[in-house]
Amino acid sequence: MTDKHFIDIRNAAKSFGSLEVLHDISLTVDKGQIVAIIGPSGSGKSTLLRAINDLDPLTSGEVWLEDMQINKDLPHGQYEKHINNVRQQIGMVFQHFNLFPHLTVRENITLAPKMLKGISDGDANKLAEEQLAKVGMLERIDFYPSQLSGGQKQRVAIARALAMKPKVMLFDEATSALDPELVEEVNLVMKQLAQEHMTMIIVTHEMGFAADVCDRVLFMDEGYVVEEGPPEVLFRNPTEERTKNFLRKHLEGNAG
Amino acid sequence: MGLDFSVVPSYLDNLFFGALWTIGITLGAAAISFFGGIGLAVIALYAPALIRWPFRVFAFMFMGTPLLLQLFLIYFGLIQIGIDLPAFVAGVIGLGLHYAVYNSDIIQAGILAVDKGQYEGSRTLGLSQGQTIRKIVVPQAVRTVIPPIGNNLIALLKDSALVSVIGVAELTLTSQLAISKTFRPFEFYVAAAGFYYVINLGLEAGLRHIERRIQIAR
Lengths: 256, 218
Known about the structure:
Low-confidence stretches of chain A: none
Shape of chain B: flat
Mean pLDDT of chain B: 95
CATH topology of chain B: MetI-like fold
Largest interface: A-B, 30 and 23 residues
Helix content of chain A: 40-55%
Strand content of chain B: under 5%
Largest sheet of chain B: none
Order of helices and strands of chain B: HHHHHHHHH
Number of helices of chain A: 9
Radius of gyration of chain B: 21 Å
Low-confidence stretches of chain B: none
Largest sheet of chain A: 6 strands, mixed
Structural class of chain B: mainly alpha
Structural class of chain A: alpha/beta
Number of strands of chain A: 10
Oligomer: heterodimer
CATH superfamily of chain B: MetI-like
Strand order of the largest sheet of chain A: 6-7-8-3-9-10
Number of strands of chain B: 0
Helix content of chain B: over 70%
Radius of gyration of chain A: 18 Å
Shape of chain A: globular
């Protein structure tokens, strides 16, 4: 390989039957970069994000993390082993948090490190406390998810992903399900990660946040990357008509 | 001939021991029906067809034939092929497997009701499918279906009386033995019913306690 990218998506395509949801998308992300993917719903942005850890496998194309191909064609048993190993290195945060309701906050965080990395109870507890302190949730360590607000749940979900010490974090509309007044606390945690140079790919509807935090913004529509560039260019001087339309509609929506 | 409950107290010890056997059968069969139910549900939903089908036939047989017949088959029938089980063990296994099949249906519904995001959240952390089923999906499914499983448990307690026919001296058989000595069926059947009722109250209290405890963790 010549120039090495941290994440390298090559000619990604995906279709459900005759419906093509991703058309030949290539995207590279360097270590420490923060990339936002914006676009109308149904544009394929979540599908692209979920292809990175092979949650939604591509129909064709390749996804690489450093020098390892993620979406390898392997016999079932080998693939399982491979993908479980890959996913330990890729943190993912979902719109609906997906915390485990039958486990406490502490257990949500320590489950995977204990099972997959075989760390002791003591070390796992320390890890949980560290990560929760980071997202400002330490005092809720023995609560159950049902006892937390949406914003608190999402901060715990971020701490849970971070506890696996991932190389990259994927955010799939992490604040879309939150009440407006709870969005900021989650954004703050994500900004803090940005300052620590965590590599992040963020699918979002929040243009302000994307403009503040991201190095690059991709605008997707109907399975294509229509336009990409630094936020100051893409948001202020988009070249494509579709981008302009989307941003105008979005700003109107927010103003109302 | 009027009723005379004064004969009952001298047999209370026997009835009490009979009740202990009933509790023992119920708890043993309940454990088999619960864990067996989980096992059957996981096989039905996740195992390859080659494994799934024999279990489906097995489940169909247990659901489609009388429990009484199953007990006879396990206790009297298996001896012919060299499996000689003590009556208590045969009763516990028969009753347990019978209710495992019913619990399996309920638990399958519980598993299917677990949000897909739970599975994704777990797989994304790097847990395998097996680990995810064991640690995330099944525990949540079971919490959802505790009430119907509890109903089955109460039905199981009552059906434990059937085990008397293969000679386990549980509550029903004990009261029949007392009747054969005193010729007082009404008094002893009522006494036995009282014991069943008290055991059932205990079971229900236990179930309510469990339901309360898991309320928050759902």
